[in-house]
Design brief:
about 300 residues, alpha+beta, Beta Polymerase, domain 2, 2 domains, 5-stranded mixed beta sheet
Length: about 300
């Protein structure tokens, strides 16, 4: 198949069990550089990039999805080799977009009839397009968090906002180098393997990544706004509680002073100490003093 210069070969490898799946094929049949094979199988997450090895291009792009009822963001790496008459894709986890594209290639010859650059574009395009539902889901969660923060600024809402900020930052770190990869293709840096008629399609992918970057920035800005709203709500609630406690303290302070003064045991000093109406007078003084203070606070609109 590789010897047929007029054909197009697509090999997709799901290397869930490590190097045993696909490495002999990459090394012995295709003759790819050992460094690229190490990038495919190492446990580290390599950033999106594209390297020109003369006879072929080696690309790394990232796929994103939400798991566990849209509560956890996961990213997976897709490695692509683009040669003169072949495309090799390798990924450690199943990627639904790649599987769907494989089914389309099996059922429609058109996808495989334009050469490896267009097939690489199709793979790149579906990977980038899968970012859109992820970002839109995060945007909906941020909107819901903002409304919840205003109604109920509780600890679980704070955890949700912080999780959204982390996911937004992770998406930002992923999409920026991916945008640069699309831009290098769109500028025609690899004319030997990417024909001029394919550049328009890669520019479309670049436009998608730019829009994704703007959407991710919007999610991050809304997350920051929700966090600031939460902190403001908590501070306002704390201020209200402190104001209420201060008012209660001020109301009871003169009453406590009066009760403590007349609670001393110096019978010979205090006048009217044995007066029968003394207790009733003291209670009346309590009512007048506290009522006057509350009325004054309300007049000043402190309560």
């Amino acid at each position: 198949m590789l010897a047929d210069a007029g054909g197009l070969l697509w090999v997709d490898i799901e290397a869930a069990d490590g190097r045993a799946e696909g490495e002999p094929l990459l090394r012995d049949v295709f003759g790819f550089h050992p460094l690229t094979i190490d990038d495919c199988y190492n446990t580290l997450v390599d950033p999106p990039k594209v390297d020109d090895y003369g006879d072929y291009l080696f690309m790394i792009v990232h796929h994103a999805q939400l798991e566990d009822q849209a509560s956890r963001l996961t990213t997976s790496e897709l490695d692509l080799y683009v040669g003169a008459n072949y495309v090799v894709s390798l990924h450690k986890q199943a990627i639904s977009a790649v599987a769907e594209l494989m089914r389309r290639a099996e059922n429609h010859e058109r996808l495989m009839s334009h050469g490896p650059a267009f097939l690489a574009h199709a793979l790149f395009d579906v990977i980038v397009d899968d970012f859109h539902p992820v970002v839109e889901a995060l945007d909906d969660r941020v909107d819901a968090a903002q409304e919840t923060v205003l109604e109920r600024p509780e600890q679980d809402v704070l955890q949700e906002v912080l999780a959204l900020k982390r996911m937004g930052l992770r998406l930002k770190r992923t999409i920026l180098p991916q945008r640069d990869v699309a831009n290098r293709f769109a500028r025609g840096e690899y004319g030997r393997l990417v024909p001029p008629e394919a550049l328009f399609y890669f520019r479309d992918v670049y436009d998608h990544t730019v829009r994704l970057e703007e959407m991710i920035d919007n999610v991050r800005d809304l997350s920051d706004s929700a966090l600031n709203t939460y902190l403001s709500s908590v501070n306002n609630r704390t201020n209200e509680v402190m104001k209420t406690l201060a008012i209660v303290t001020v109301v009871f302070l003169p009453l406590t002073l009066l009760a403590s003064v007349y609670g001393t045991n110096f019978h010979e000093v205090w006048p009217h100490y044995s007066w029968d109406g003394g207790f009733a007078t003291m209670i009346a003084a309590f009512v007048v003093i506290s009522g006057s203070l509350v009325a004054w606070f309300r007049w000043r609109r402190w309560i």
